[in-house]
């Protein structure tokens, strides 16, 4: 599946790229209760080992999303994971109630880890008590499976993972981006309009792998690995570390159909080891 | 992705004309491709617009300011190509007396349009005579080049009363000023905007530009937009 915020399947189709056909699930861009413009430009820059983004969660707001975006994406025929974000617990609860029962939605991904907003998101996911409370409130508001996407920018990820589990999470998504900064050599100013941004790409992979390992030890939840995945080998590493599934994000920007290559490479790697499939690696799976 | 290779590089002032072969769809004037030189293997591709395309290859104008673009300007370099993407310049709106207004590197975008509009006059602004070499790419018979302290907007103002349409490409400040001038004169205008891009196909939400009070994705809504959206 794609990482949240790294694919607009409808825009991709308009550009001649049927990326959705290569994915088992489609993860939406994070939607917040009210519409957001996002951060000022520039929003992206390349850095050593990947890129920084300071997109800032632009989205049409929950009502417009449910009314116009969701039906259009649903029509592509793939199960959807809707990423929801917010600035207080009530925001997440509201989204859960609104999306509960929506056809085509297989799960909700709670974004408690975006580093590009002035409040909410990561400030919730950095605190075990806040994380547990948000997940618990969401669990009471919907019967949809809840995947909680965590930040690597925390001191005790194991504690956050256990808190999400206590709150009733069904899975963890590991990880969101690392906070970073880049300076323009011409202007000597930050390259991003939002000053700091989230680091993704190869530099994030060891961090996300460690996060999967830590959470595998800390809790019993199924894990979705994300961070710098660009090959079958990368995906296999996350599965070995303890993930049951993976998401591909910024590596697809230069190779839109990357998911197909990863799948083909992974099948080959597993066959070389005499394994029939991913299930032979792991005992926990995402339903 | 389409594989191609740098077949030729020709310096043009501070720029380099990079010809890729074999050919691939060159797109409409003003559309763009995402190019990545494999020897440098940058994490992100770079957006560039074709200045010419034919049955054997596609030519881009490149300003090799960093290692990724410098790698693209090397003969023999293997290149991955995505695109063409975006909305291009619509020559059907030109009328009988169109103006092409370009600044610096942006003049390259106007080259393929000029071939479709032989009646168009080119007004171009450059920081110095060396950079003004880029105007050679535009085959307009009628042209005026503005070097400091001359101002291309003065050249435009003199011609707007008789212009049937304006196409502009170049630095953000210039094209927005052109859009405002055209709006004031009631002349239809199309402008090509620029923004840092990570993907080029609407996935990353990175290429944000403000149009008419809204922030939109330039790769989805542009890069060519109606001047009134910029002037609003």
Structure description:
The complex is a heterodimer of chains A (287) and B (232). In chain A, α3 packs parallel to α5, α5 runs parallel beside α6 and α8 crosses α9. With 287 residues, chain A is of the alpha/beta class. Chain A has nine helices and eleven strands. Chain A has a single domain, classed as Aldolase class I (TIM Barrel), CATH 3.20.20.70. Chain B is of the alpha/beta class and 232 residues long. In chain B, 20% of the residues lie in helices and 34% in strands. Chain B contains six helices and 15 strands. In chain B, a hairpin with a 2-residue loop joins β13 and β14. The longest helix of chain B is centred in the C-terminal third of the chain and has 14 residues. The model of chain B has no long low-confidence stretch (mean pLDDT 95). At the A-B interface, α1, β2 and β3 of A face β7 and β14 of B.
Note the total helix count of chain A.
9
H/I helix tally of chain B: 6
CATH architectural grouping of the largest domain in chain B:
3-Layer(aba) Sandwich
Counted up, domains of chain B total 2
Unreliable sequence segments of chain B = none
User: Which CATH-level-2 architecture of chain A?
Assistant: Alpha-Beta Barrel
Query: Beta-sheet strand percentage of chain B?
Result: 25-35%
CATH superfamily of the largest domain in chain B: Nucleotide-binding domain of ferredoxin-NADP reductase (FNR) module
Rg of chain B (C-alpha, Å)? 17 Å
Report the order of strands and helices of chain B.
EEEEEEHEEHEEHEHEEEHEH
């Amino acid at each position: 599946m794609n990482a949240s915020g790294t694919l607009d399947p409808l825009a991709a189709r308009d550009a001649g790229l049927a990326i959705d056909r290569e994915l088992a699930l489609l993860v939406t861009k994070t939607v917040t209760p009210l519409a957001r413009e996002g951060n000022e430009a520039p929003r992206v820059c390349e850095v050593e080992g990947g890129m920084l983004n300071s997109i800032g969660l632009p989205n049409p707001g929950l009502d417009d999303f449910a009314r116009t975006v969701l039906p259009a994406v649903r029509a592509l025929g793939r199960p959807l994971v809707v990423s929801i974000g917010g600035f207080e617990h009530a925001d997440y609860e509201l989204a859960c109630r609104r999306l509960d029962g929506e056809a085509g939605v297989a799960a909700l991904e709670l974004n408690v880890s975006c580093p590009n907003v002035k409040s909410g998101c990561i400030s919730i996911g950095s605190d075990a008590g806040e994380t547990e409370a948000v997940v618990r409130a969401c669990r009471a508001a919907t019967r949809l499976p809840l995947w909680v996407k965590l930040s690597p920018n925390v001191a005790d990820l194991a504690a956050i993972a256990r808190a999400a589990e206590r709150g009733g999470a069904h899975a963890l998504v590991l990880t969101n981006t690392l906070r970073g900064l880049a300076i323009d050599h011409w202007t000597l100013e930050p390259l991003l309009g939002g000053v700091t941004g989230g680091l993704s790409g190869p530099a994030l992979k060891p961090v996300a792998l460690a996060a999967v390992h830590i959470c595998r030890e800390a809790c019993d939840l199924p894990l979705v690995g994300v961070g710098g995945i660009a090959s079958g080998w990368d995906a296999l590493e996350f599965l070995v570390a303890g993930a049951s599934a993976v998401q591909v994000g910024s590596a697809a920007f230069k190779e839109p159909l990357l998911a197909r290559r990863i799948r083909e490479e992974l099948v080959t790697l597993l066959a070389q080891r005499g394994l029939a499939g991913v299930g032979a690696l792991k005992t926990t799976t995402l339903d | 992705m389409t594989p191609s290779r740098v077949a030729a590089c020709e310096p043009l002032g501070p720029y380099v004309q990079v010809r890729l072969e074999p050919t691939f769809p060159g797109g409409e004037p003003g559309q763009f491709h995402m190019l990545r030189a494999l020897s440098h293997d940058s994490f992100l591709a770079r957006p560039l617009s074709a200045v010419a395309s034919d049955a054997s290859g596609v030519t881009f104008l490149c300003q090799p300011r960093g290692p990724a673009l410098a790698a693209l300007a090397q003969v023999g370099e293997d290149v991955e190509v995505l695109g063409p993407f975006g909305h291009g310049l619509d020559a059907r709106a030109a009328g009988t007396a169109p103006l092409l207004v370009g600044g610096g590197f942006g003049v390259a975008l106007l080259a393929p349009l000029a071939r479709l509009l032989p009646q168009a006059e080119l007004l171009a602004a450059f920081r110095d005579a060396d950079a003004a070499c880029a105007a050679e790419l535009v085959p307009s018979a009628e042209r005026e080049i503005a070097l400091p302290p001359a101002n291309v907007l003065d050249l435009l103002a003199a011609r707007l009363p008789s212009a049937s349409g304006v196409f502009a490409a170049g630095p953000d400040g210039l094209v927005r000023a052109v859009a405002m001038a055209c709006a004031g004169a009631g002349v239809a205008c199309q402008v090509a905007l620029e923004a840092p891009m990570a993907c080029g196909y609407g996935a990353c939400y990175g290429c944000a530009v403000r149009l008419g009070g809204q922030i939109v994705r330039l790769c989805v809504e542009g890069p060519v937009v109606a001047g009134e959206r910029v002037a609003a």
